Amino acid sequence: MDVILIAAVTQDGFISRHAHETVRWSKDLRLFKEQTLGWPVIMGSHTFRCLTKELTGRDVCIVHRSDDPKKILSKYNTEKCFVIGGGKTNARFSPHLTHLYLTPHPIVFGSGIRLFSEPTEEMKLKLEKTVAVEKSEGIFQYQYRINRDIGHTG
Ligand SMILES: NC(=O)c1ccc[n+]([C@@H]2O[C@H](COP(=O)([O-])OP(=O)(O)OC[C@H]3O[C@@H](n4cnc5c(N)ncnc54)[C@H](OP(=O)(O)O)[C@@H]3O)[C@@H](O)[C@H]2O)c1
Description:
Number of strands: 9
CATH class: Alpha Beta
Structural class: alpha/beta
Shape: globular
CATH superfamily: Dihydrofolate Reductase, subunit A
Strand order of the largest sheet: 4-3-5-1-6-9-8
Distance between the termini: 33 Å
CATH architecture: 3-Layer(aba) Sandwich
Bound molecules: NADP nicotinamide-adenine-dinucleotide phosphate
CATH topology: Dihydrofolate Reductase, subunit A
Largest sheet: 7 strands, mixed
Helix content: 10-25%
Number of domains: 1
Oligomer: single chain
């Protein structure tokens, strides 16, 4: 199963200013809906609290600290599922991710919630596709496959 992390990020690698921010600056909500519709979506409890609308048409799983990511993923028998944040949840699911769908936005926060709130393993990314979000503003979604066989040459 493809386990896809999907996120809007700032140019300095943040996904929000603080844990309670509802993300209103993202330009890729339409693409997010199109890509996740019909698939399981996994999110942390903080992100769930920040939602202004229900994510209809998707099997939504809200993760708490006592949950085991491996067990959660094992209950899905689908071609793919999406990990949709926030930073804590992204970090907890990071060992299981197969893809990153990232949309860098032309904004810098300086501080906030990182894409991965905790240290993760190094990942080598292979670009598979780019999708235009707002071409005139230079906003594209980059779809990467994660390659974990990294030769450490120093
Ligand atoms: N830009 C984007 O694409 C994007 C996407 C998604 C979210 N966001 C933003 O990201 C922010 C939320 O991110 P987040 O990282 O704070 O939260 P999160 O990952 O959504 O939720 C927090 C998770 O961490 C757990 N947790 C909390 N405290 C913990 C602790 N001390 N030890 C272990 N686990 C703990 C929570 O479990 P419990 O339920 O048990 O507390 C929950 O599973 C929001 O502002 C949201 O809008 C942005």
